[in-house]
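*** Protein under study ***
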Amino acid sequence: MWQFAERTIRDVFHQFNYKEIRTPIFESTSLFARSIGELTDIVGKEMYTFQDRSGDSITLRPEGTASAIRAYIQNNLGESLPLSKVYYIGPMFRQERPQAGRLRQFHQFGAEAIGSPTAETDVEIIAMTIEIYKRLGITSYSLQINSVGDEECRPKYKEILRDELRKIADQLSTESQKRIDQNPMRVLDSKDENDQKLTASMPLITDHLNEECSKHFERVKALLTAYGIPYTVNGRLVRGLDYYTKTAFEITSTELGSQDALAGGGRYDLLVKELGGKQTPSVGFAAGMERLMMILEKKGITPPKQNPKIFIAAADESSREWVLKTTMALRTNGIASECDLLSRSLKSQMKEADRQQAEFSLVVGTMELESGKALLKNLTDHTQQEISVNDIVGFFNK
């Protein structure tokens, strides 16, 4: 199932013209502190960080975007491509309490479009994410979007929100009380039910966007409608990473229970500069493989079977070498083939052909090699036909 899902994901990425990027499992701790934000839960509580023999602080990557941007800057990808479109699939690490859909070593797939400021790029990322789930047979999902503003309008909104939150601070959870001064927008994203009730009427950033952010958000919504992608505006959606600007989105599914998030992402126009590159607008998303596996299993979605096209059985000892050579020739021509490697009887070989659900079987012995003819049996409809043993590769290539 994993290979099937990964093939499907890669197929969609390639059809959208995204190229694979592979980054190290660990990076300098400062990379994640600078990009994700020192006050986030990931950096503050969840990262696996340790010193190497040189005394340098390194961290197992907790997410993929920071590493992709570091590689983009380090390899000067922006010099050759005005828009770099990359994707990744690989393991990430966070020191969380293991539970369904949330593991300490987990796997993510994601993509980054680096170099474009347009709403069209935001919507391409969203559409591509949804297309992956559709290809895998997942149609029960919902898309929530928001704008989290930019470096001009967000600080003003934070002050307005902070003033309102201080009025109810003593009633909020301990975690939310800490966030009032650190990052008040995260209070709106609290999972605490009491916090949610208390902040239900709080001002939302969508009512405090500047002209640029407002126009960008309206364009995103218009394009989603034009593409026939249903969405809900959720003014409380802020995502858990500090680097987001303007568009933020999340795709959820009720089929996952309490851990309902399938994928999330957004725009991060300040991150490349923050990590030492030029000012470069960017947008991306990330999604969990384990949660994808959970929903595929719940829906009973299974990958297409990858069975041998043909199983060649040796009728006697003298034909075994020919069978081995012919099986290898078929394989090198791209035809999935199998034969017996355990010196079993013909009866046992035929049972193995059935067990492996091969499409065809071919029995070859001394008599068939001398005559140059053998009977090819279709194990699906039980028909058979005579073919030349000297042109099996040509027969299947046709």
Q: What stands out?
A: The chain has 16 helices and 16 strands.
